[in-house]
Amino acid sequence: MKKKIFPFATVIFILIVFLSCSSTPERSRRPVSTIKISPEKNLKYNSALTVHIKTKLSNGTIEKINLYLNNQLLHSTKELQFDYTIEHIKSLGNNTLKVEAVKTDGVKNMKKKNFSVFSDILPKNYTYKVINEYPHSRSFFTEGLLVHDGFLYEGTGEHGSSAIYKKEITTGNVLQSVELEEQYFGEGITILNNKIYQLTYKSQTGFVYQLNDFSVIDTFQFASEQGWGLTNDGTNLIMSDGTNTLTWLNPSDFSVVKKIRVADHSQKMNVINELEYVDGKIYANVWTRDFIVEIEPETGRVLSIINMTGILKDKDKIPSKPVDVLNGIAYDHATGKMYVTGKYYPKLYEIELVELK
Fold it and tell me: What sign results for the dihedral spanned by CA atoms 213, 215, 217, 220?
């Protein structure tokens, strides 16, 4: 009779499998971090923020845990749990904290937390007084406005009708002009060092013109998806891009010098449009809104809000052109006069600001 070897063979097989499995190294698992902040809400400019970090490990050892604010490294440690205090929050609007936990075997994980910061001051409130009214072309889709050496310069938008004009302030008569090719939608303009700089809407392209004859002498590219308003502080260009961000550009190589985000005491100031630099402050239109904001360029805080409601009278509106949007701020540094207008507005208004108590 044959011996039964099946049970013995089975035991050997199970033993081999067990030994094989037990010798297999444990799979490295990613570390898991959590981020908590205090206070959690109503964060204001220049206030303190404490960040609480806790990281869990299933296996292995940690090599480093890095904490970033808006992609700038704040702190690096091996501690799985720690607190870090930011003494003064300086960045308005949306902010992002990021924790990157890296194990000694290279396995890592990342966690993000977004929070908002608003201004710590209550903006002053202004209204306006119309001093004079001057003619303005109803066909001009105004995107940029400024006064230079006693003349009004205006940049217009829309494909096929984008241009730059030099005009007489009181008559609106056009003295000089240059048109963009139909593929471009013109946006903000500014004059710096005897050159006119012009943005375009979605082409990520800017143009540089010689001031005296409007000849194109250069083009440049910018990283923002859209170009909106443009001004300068005497050294650098300052542009808006349809968000609450203002970007300073070096006029020589168009590199980014700095960025700020704009907010008042309760909200981000989105869709910032046409810009004007006046006595160390930035005045800005806010798209589709009948007010102008005064911005502190060092911080992005809104210092004042100028209510422009009612400046375009109902009788002057054009039903066939519904985009009657306030857009265009010009300041004459020689006379101290301020002018405003809008897209398809029939008038240019010289105004005086009146503070509301």
Answer: positive
For residue 286 the two structure tokens come to: 């806010």
Three-class SS state of 69: strand
State how far the Cα of 255 lies from the Cα of 240, in Å rounded to an integer: 15
CB-based contact 100:65 (threshold 8 Å): yes
Q: Note the pLDDT tens digit of each residue in 31-57.
A: 999 999 999 888 999 999 999 999 999
Select from 2.60.40.10, 3.30.390.10, 3.20.20.70, 3.40.50.10380 the CATH code of 32-118.
Answer: 2.60.40.10
pLDDT in tens, 274-301: 999 999 999 999 999 999 999 999 999 9
* Residue 6, pLDDT score: 46
236-274 exposure pattern, b = at least 16 Cβ within 10 A, e = fewer: bbbbbbbbbbbbbbebeebeeeeebbbbbeeebbebbbb
Query: For residues 29 and 59, is the Cβ–Cβ distance under 8 A?
Result: yes
Better pLDDT: 14 or 209:
209
